[in-house]
Amino acid sequence: MYFLQQNSKLVDLQNLLAMNNLTNLVQSPKRISNRSVSSIDVIISNTDKETFTVNQKLGYSDHLTQLLYLKSKIQMEGPITKYKRHFTVKNFEQFQYSLHKENWNDLTTSDEPNMSFNIFMDTFRYYFNTAFPLKFTHTNNSAKNTWITKGVIIPRNKLRLLYHIKSSIKLSVKFLKYIQTYQKIYRKVITEAKKARQIKLYYPPQIKTKCYGN
């Protein structure tokens, strides 16, 4: 969705966001070239209080990175409580059955499209919240990206430098192929690092014991 130019589709999207108390926090273009500017990458949030966004060029692509700053509570160590919806086969069957048995005559009898749409959304939201209610869940807050090791950081920084060079000057075809090959290698490094971390989590090293006999 192109957010810099007003059109009917954008108005419909903005109205839909407003109905659900949502707003787009990105107000500046993310792609700037010599010929045009565009803003198709957005950040949708249910609050716009004490927030602001900043553009930053990392050198990985022609799109600028959007950094979102918002005020939040101090994150506590240990387990924390969150609201979460549980989606199961039984819940989906209940949701489908509720929509199937609902009488939708009010949608067809109304002459006002907006009223029909509001009736549909209210009914849909009611059955959705009934079938998939928000429940308290306890999550562990101690998880970190431990797979990001020195072997990942070093090629990441080099790739960032290569992309900066690529966006700054005109390069030869041979050098562009080198950057493309290095990018593929870096992706494999990330994949293997994540796999190694998962193996350590699910298959911890066994403790070797020694037995002494008389």
Summarize it.
The radius of gyration is 26 Å and the shape is extended.
Number of helices: 6
Parts with pLDDT < 50 across at least 5 consecutive residues: 207-214
Principal-axis shape equals: extended
Largest sheet report: 2 strands, antiparallel
Q: Into which percent range does the helicity of residues fall?
A: 40-55%
Total E-strand runs: 8
Strands of the widest sheet, in order across it, are 1-4
Overall domain count: 3
Q: What's the SSE pattern?
A: HEEEEEEEHHHEHH
Rg over CA atoms, rounded to whole Å, is: 26 Å
Terminus-to-terminus distance: 78 Å
Tell me what portion of residues adopts beta-strand conformation: 15-25%
> How confident is the prediction overall: mean pLDDT?
77
Structural class: alpha+beta
Description:
With 214 residues, this protein is an alpha+beta fold. It folds into three domains: 63 residues, no CATH class; 57 residues, no CATH class; 53 residues. Helix content is 46%, strand content 16%. The protein contains six helices and eight strands, in the order αβββββββαααβαα. The chain has a two-stranded antiparallel ribbon. Strand 2 and strand 3 form a beta hairpin. Helix 2 runs antiparallel to helix 4 and helix 5 runs antiparallel to helix 6. The longest helix has 30 residues. The chain is extended. The C terminus is likely disordered.
